[in-house]
Predict the 3D structure of the following.
Amino acid sequence: MLEVTKLKNLLGTVSDEKDTVLQFILDDVEETILNYCNICELPEGLVNTAYRMAMDIYRNENIGNEEGSSGDITSIKEGDITVNFSNSSNNIVFANSVLKNYIFQLRKYRRLSK
């Protein structure tokens, strides 16, 4: 139901080399929604929400980058060269907040059990 081509159009210029990453993100978002809502298939009413979640993840989690995200530089010392980076807990906080940002929309479709 969720299409890589549509996600690429929503994100703007994204190369074809990112198709695998985008498909992973779409699959992950769909799985997250289905698990949270305790449902077996994505309802039409959550398709746009799923794309928004996918866009947020793509823009903030740096999926598919070999180097990963070491965080922002917090300090630099020149003598004996020291560079400090913020920890990756910001990424964890972001990952936890993506679902929270869409809870209002998802709750309408949530079931107590499958």
Q: What stands out?
A: The first strand starts at residue 73 and ends at 77. Residues 3 and 13 are 16 Å apart (CA to CA).
